[in-house]
Specification:
Chain A is α+β, with helices and mostly antiparallel strands. Chain A has 2 domains: about 1-170, no CATH class; about 180-430, Alpha-Beta Plaits. Chain A contains 10 helices and 11 strands. Chain B has 2 domains: about 5-105, Orthogonal Bundle (Helicase, Ruva Protein, domain 3); about 110-325, Rossmann fold (3-Layer(aba) Sandwich), CATH 3.40.50. Chain B has 15 helices and 9 strands. Chain B has helices spanning about 5, 10-15, 35-50, 55-65, 85-95, 100-105, 125-140, 160-170, 185-195, 215-220, 235-240, 245-250, 260-275, 290-300, 330, and strands at about 110, 115, 150-155, 175-180, 200-205, 225-230, 275-285, 305-310, 315-325. In chain B, the strands form 2 sheets. Chain B has a 7-stranded mixed sheet, with helices on both faces. In chain B, helix 13 packs across helix 14 (about 290-300). The termini of chain B are far apart. The chains are: A alpha+beta, B alpha/beta. The interface of A and B includes residues 228 and 306 of A. Chain B: One of its GO terms (molecular function) is peptide chain release factor N(5)-glutamine methyltransferase activity.
């Protein structure tokens, strides 16, 4: 419950700052607009109004959603209830404090909500004026034009307001700004070489995407396969909002193509292969304390006297976190110390992941019920080389020109944004359903 | 791998099937073109059969080096090798067949974040020594130099220069004096220093600390840090070392006498004359040494205080930290 409350507070805080940005602007402008229209009625006017931009948005559409509406109405009801309670003379100090806290939380949302309702009223007014001017004389034609523009402008504003309102309702993932540990792994279907080949291409794609997004891309492990393929690679990607963009890349990616190299290339027919992407958010260094006593470090030199009596080129390091049994290995560098540092970073990421695991697992089960049987392990995307097409199975997003797509530039970015928006919508719906079914909103925790 | 038979194994086959039991003459160059991957697999197998240690890694590092990389991974393994590359790989791998350490074969290795040139018979730095550097660096950073005095460091037995150059590259203010009794080591340290553009802050002297200690004192005192990875193996153990070490590395860099303490005792005896007050000594030693060293110092060198023993990555007591006591006058 406490966590829930915290999440809500942070959401409201975000909402409030958003409203500060949105409300004064829209309110003032619209009021001015109305005033201006009223005074100008009957006068000649030759200026042009700001042209209305298309403000359509998928996220904004959610406003029409029944659950969201219900959720909003509930919140507004709660707000009105709190206002009423606050006016009552006999409430205890503790109650009052709780109510005021809730009130401050809800106020910004209530403001935007009122703004939307006012804008709708204005829109109605303009519409009725328009209706009245149908069949008017020639000199009024210009006024009619103005009214039409005005109406378009208001409805555009309403859409923007709605979109912002809905966006502000979307729960924030606290990990969004984290860096990530990204792993690519070849699948083990028949004709493994097609999977390994594809895994290397995927690796190159993410490297391209990191470049496109101006992120750091540091290779921790790279285990090549025959024919220029790739078994497994682990990289650390660091930059702005890396986890936010890459978290939905985790899962199984499928390839369909006629193999170019390797054993399966002898038969000229379409093969299907898979590879898996794992994306772990990487904690900020301070979040996690690891006691050195809890670690067991294995190296080639673990046995025997070591030191000057042994010369080896085996610099691999394996770190085991004894309490959890979590393991990380690195053999990327010729320096044992550098391998140790890398392995420690990987271990940190994995421990953090398992720490977050409980929370994430809970969210995933809830989401599974909502969205159907889908999790990270399911196929999320198909790369069909024969048809030169990439299809994302979650959104149905289709990208042509697979070569361009796998360069990891704008085409991939578009698809990722699309998935992200879709996931945000789902997350909001999930939240709304939980709230709607679970709790009586008029009762504070 | 089937292709072996066609172009190599006939050499051994003629001598019989048990070619793993004797050392083959170096295998002939392949007749046709081969890929890097084929070369890699071939030599791995051949090393294995010839009893060369770490066959897989040896083959990997040599092929990678011939292709111009540190690891073979970024290279395209499926591409065919040119005749020159193939010849180079065969030449280098044949060296490895004689048990020459990979680091000497490819003439370079990594130490911490530096890549250093390696050349026989100069001692190849071991991973434990990376931790010795870590230890010194941590202390240098925790105890910043008082006032304007520049921190100076003396290394006894610099070998390839790994310790001194790592310290220099991590501490932009530090000055280092490095000594070695071997002319080859002095040359190699100089070479590595100028390749890493660190030659301005290092003085390298060809001196034997055992016999020319006074000379060493006059060249560098006083210093705030003395660091050394001295020869610390017990003479009896030296005989049982792998041929990589025994045949190729300078025994003076390894053999510390019957108890492995000969050079260590000399360093600790001379140290008070070289160190500034509260200056630190950092030594890499054999795991059996720390208690012996502590005992010996307490009985023989009044000016030094034994601070602590530190373990290496595998939890062996590996490093000794000592400190020169502050002079009585200053304390009062």
């Amino acid at each position: 419950m406490l966590k829930c409350g915290d999440m809500l507070v942070s959401r409201w805080l975000r909402l409030r700052s958003l409203c500060n940005r949105v409300c004064p602007h829209t309110r003032r402008e619209e009021r001015k607009g109305l005033l201006w229209r009223r005074t100008l009625i009957g006068h000649q006017f030759t200026g042009t109004l700001a042209s209305s931009r298309p403000c359509h948005s998928d996220v904004g559409d959610l406003y029409q959603n029944e659950c969201i509406q219900r959720y909003l109405q509930q919140l507004m009801q709660e707000y009105r209830y709190i206002c009423q309670r606050l006016e009552l003379p006999h409430i205890s100090e503790a109650d009052r404090r709780a109510l005021i806290k809730k009130h401050t939380e809800l106020l910004p949302l209530a403001d935007v909500f009122t703004d939307i309702e006012e804008a709708l009223k204005d829109q109605q007014e303009v519409s009725s004026l328009l209706l009245g001017s149908v069949g008017a004389k020639d000199e009024d034609k210009q006024l009619t034009e103005l009214l039409k523009e005005e109406e378009a402008q208001i409805s555009c504003k309403v859409l923007t307001l709605r979109k912002n309102l809905v966006k502000a309702l979307v729960p924030i993932d606290p990990l969004d700004s984290s860096n990530v540990l990204l792993e690519v792994m070849a699948g083990r279907t028949t004709g493994g070489d097609i999977c390994q080949q594809f895994t290397r291409e995927m690796f190159d794609m993410y490297r391209g995407y990191a470049w496109f997004k101006n992120w750091d891309f540091e290779v921790y492990n790279y285990t090549p396969a025959e024919y220029g393929g790739l078994h497994h690679a682990a990289v650390r990607i660091a930059g702005i909002d890396v986890y936010k963009h890459l978290k939905h890349e985790g899962g199984t990616h499928r390839v369909q193509r006629i193999p170019e190299v390797g054993l399966s290339s002898r038969m000229q027919r379409i093969h299907t292969g898979t590879m898996t992407v794992i994306v772990l958010p990487q904690p900020v260094e301070l979040d996690l304390h690891i006691d050195p006593k809890d670690l067991r470090i294995d190296t080639f030199r673990s046995r025997g006297a070591g030191g000057q009596s042994v010369n080896t080129t085996d610099s691999a390091v394996r770190v085991v976190h004894l309490p959890t049994g979590t393991v990380a290995e690195c053999q990327q560098s010729r320096s044992q110390l550098q391998n140790r540092d890398t392995a420690m970073r990987m271990l940190r990421a994995r421990l953090y992941q398992s720490m977050m695991g409980e929370e994430i697992k809970h969210r995933q089960t809830v989401r599974k019920q909502q969205v159907g049987e889908r999790s990270q392990s399911d196929r999320i995307r198909t790369y069909n080389f024969s048809q030169d097409r990439v299809t994302d199975h979650r959104t149905g997003h289709v990208a042509r020109d697979i070569k361009e797509f796998m360069r990891g530039g704008g085409a991939l970015d578009n698809l990722i944004s699309d998935v992200l928006e879709n996931e945000e919508k789902q997350a909001l719906l999930e939240l709304v359903e939980n709230r709607g079914n679970g709790r009586d909103l008029t009762n504070p925790d | 791998l089937h292709f072996h038979f066609s172009w190599f194994c006939f050499v051994c086959q003629r001598r019989g099937q048990f070619h793993s039991l004797h050392t083959c003459s170096p295998p002939a160059l392949p007749v046709g073109r081969i890929t890097a991957l084929q070369a890699l697999e071939f030599w791995k197998k051949h090393f294995e059969e010839s009893g060369v240690t770490e066959p897989d890694l040896s083959s990997h590092y040599i092929v990678a080096h011939s292709l111009g990389g540190k690891t073979v991974q970024q290279r395209k393994l499926t591409e065919f090798l040119s005749r020159e590359k193939t010849e180079q790989i065969w030449k280098l791998c044949t060296k490895r067949l004689s048990r020459m350490p990979v680091q000497y074969v490819i003439q370079e290795w990594d130490f911490r974040d530096l890549t250093l040139t390696m050349r026989p018979p100069v001692f190849i730095p071991r991973p434990e020594t990376e931790e010795l550097v870590e230890l010194v660096l941590t202390d240098l950073k925790n105890k910043p130099s008082s006032g304007d005095t520049v921190q100076t460091c003396l290394e006894v037995g610099c070998g390839s220069g790994a310790v001194s150059l790592s310290l220099l590259s991590s501490c932009p203010q530090l000055q280092v004096v490095a000594l070695d009794r071997s002319q080859e080591a002095v040359e190699l340290t100089k070479e590595n220093a100028s390749r890493l553009k660190l030659q301005d802050r290092i003085q390298i002297h060809h001196l034997d600390f055992m016999t020319e200690a006074d000379e060493a004192c006059s060249r560098c005192s006083p210093v705030s840090v003395l660091v050394s990875n001295p020869p610390y193996l017990f003479s009896d153990d030296v005989k049982t070392l792998e041929p990589e070490i025994l045949r190729f590395e300078d025994p003076f860099a390894l053999d510390g006498g019957s108890d492995g303490l000969t050079v260590i005792k000399q360093i600790l005896t001379v140290a008070p004359k070289i160190l500034s007050d509260r200056g630190g000594i950092y030594l890499e030693v054999d795991p059996r040494h720390p208690p012996l060293i502590q005992q010996w110092v307490e009985a023989n060198v009044a000016e030094l205080r034994y601070v602590e023993t530190r373990p290496d990555i595998n939890s062996r007591p590996r490093f000794c930290v000592l400190q020169k006591k502050q002079r009585e006058l200053d304390v009062k």
